[in-house]
């Protein structure tokens, strides 16, 4: 069973940009998800590739995840006809001490939000913490893309945004 172990952090400043090796624009929309299901089902277009992704709806660092390549034309049609809310972002790949961080710079209704994700082999695996890596938000479901699609960053209350500054 494929298991994703992923840590998610807020990003502080722009120092990471100098070491980004590549970037790609992504658009993803959700076909099914909570509260009716115990998983989310999304279609994602990244550059010229497309994927169908099924991820368990349990919060935390470790979740079940299945991902399958699909034809680009199918993904475009799914996004246009079946997907609900859509998340737009540019993913930047930044290597730090042999670890590849994926820095997601959100656009559209989530503009202004920048998070870094790091996939690990074990929940307790050590990893580097560059100065631009801010507070960990792995357990906060409001930062999950599924939630950003339904309740975008631009609609967050001052209390929701300030809760991040208080930690």
TrEMBL record:
Residues 2-150 form the CYTH domain. Pfam families: CYTH. SMART domains: CYTH. PANTHER family: SLR0698 PROTEIN. Gene3D superfamilies: Hypothetical Protein Pfu-838710-001. It comes from the Bacteria. This is CYTH domain-containing protein. InterPro entries: CYTH-like_dom_sf, CYTH_domain, NeuTTM/CthTTM-like. The lineage of its organism: Bacteria, Pseudomonadati, Pseudomonadota, Gammaproteobacteria, Lysobacterales. It comes from Dokdonella ginsengisoli.
């Amino acid at each position: 069973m494929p298991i994703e172990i992923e840590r998610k952090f807020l990003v502080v400043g722009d120092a990471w940009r100098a070491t980004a090796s590549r970037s790609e624009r992504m658009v993803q929309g959700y076909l099914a998800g909570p509260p009716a299901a115990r998983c989310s089902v999304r279609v994602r277009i990244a550059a010229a590739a497309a994927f169908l992704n099924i991820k368990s709806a349990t919060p935390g660092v470790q979740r079940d995840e299945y991902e399958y390549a699909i034809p680009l034309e199918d993904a475009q049609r799914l996004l246009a006809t079946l997907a609900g809310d859509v998340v737009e972002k540019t993913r930047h790949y930044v290597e730090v001490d042999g670890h590849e961080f994926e820095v997601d710079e959100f656009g559209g209704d989530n503009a202004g939000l920048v998070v870094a994700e790091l996939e690990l082999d074990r929940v307790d695996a050590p990893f580097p913490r560059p100065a631009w890596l801010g507070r960990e938000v792995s357990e906060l479901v409001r930062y999950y893309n599924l939630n950003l699609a339904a309740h975008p960053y631009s609609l967050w209350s001052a209390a929701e945004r300030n809760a991040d500054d208080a930690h």
